Amino acid sequence: MERLGDLEAEVMDQVWAARGPVAVRGVRDALHRTRPLAYTTVMTVMDRLFHKGWLVREHVGRSYQYRPALSRGEYTARMMRDVLSTTDDRGLALLHFVDTMDPAEYEALQEALRWHQSRTPRAARSPRVEDETL
N or C end: fewer C-beta atoms under 10 angstroms in the chain? Predict the structure, then answer.
């Protein structure tokens, strides 16, 4: 999945922040507070995001309602995986990453690992994954 451009990222931020499907006008109005854009510009960006697979849309009345195809968390996880794929030593890259975490982030990672281990059958786990937490 390709990365988002600056304007695409701003549009996606608005769609992710919405509590449900959004129309182009709603996104434009939210963006207009900090970045005045023409309705057609936002419509074009959202149409492109739909065709790229970032947005799902449904025809409602005379316009479309959009929602994200991926949650912000899923997007972030994919970007992290893409970045990790550029190194020849993922373990070392992850070690450096963990070394920069603050205590709350570190605890969140430990909790995620505990949750993952609790739902993954022991036989299916990678042999490198220890039962001990970090």
Answer: C
